[in-house]
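Bump. Still looking for Maleylpyruvate isomerase family mycothiol-dependent enzyme structure tokens.
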Amino acid sequence: MTLLSHDRYCSEILAQTEQLRATLRGVALDTVVPTCPDWTVAQLGRHLGNAHRHATRLVRERIVDYKPDLSTDSTAGAETFDAAGLDAWLAEGAEELAATLREAGPETPVWTFGAEQKASFWARRMTHETVVHRADAASAAGAPFTVAQDVAADTLDEWLGIITSPLAQAFKPQLKELLGQGRTLHLHATDTPPELNAEWFVEAGGESIEWRRAHEKADVAVRGPMTEILRVFYRRIPADSDLVEVVGDRAALEYWLERTAF
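Sorry for the wait, here they are.
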């Protein structure tokens, strides 16, 4: 289930990329990105632009049989762009991706790393990839970061869907360390309208990690504004930030966060 329409995702790819570009204007390309300290701003931009182009190719060419090359360094060559070149390249990639997704429509069969093997997966995935890297750009620029509540909630839904999938567990064995531990986690956005139902209950027990939108007692709860809940769960701000409240077993929260980081 998704919160947003295919057309909305396409529009968000454009809007989120434009906001990211605006955030980075005037920031030196060799600036370290605090939330991704192995990257500079140039590498962050290169990574996102490559992600957009990769998704565009899969959808445009209707690729249904594909084996990812996990050894590929998507940040290679970042040093070849000046600031203006990187900005234009990011704009071009987002525009090409949105146009390709709109032309294909949500039901076109396409390879993905999820259960859903169609173009709608990439519209959603690239929306949230761009949202989270916009948070990285804000950290590099020392700028504020906010995101629409429905987009933030869907970003968190998608992330939970990814980290609880068998494919993700095969790619990242640390996720399997959560299994059978019986640890439970509750995320509660405190600034959203009731109809958004912005609460999540996550538990690991037996052979799978399960999650649902629900208000339930857990070993540890994280409460705060929707944007900050998202940033904590994506490890873009620390769990001990004064922007959120942590109630219960903080060690259980850190255990979750350490093993779900990509």
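The helical segments are 6-24, 41-60, 83-104, 119-141, 149-163, 166-171, 226-233, 250-260.

Edit: fixed formatting.
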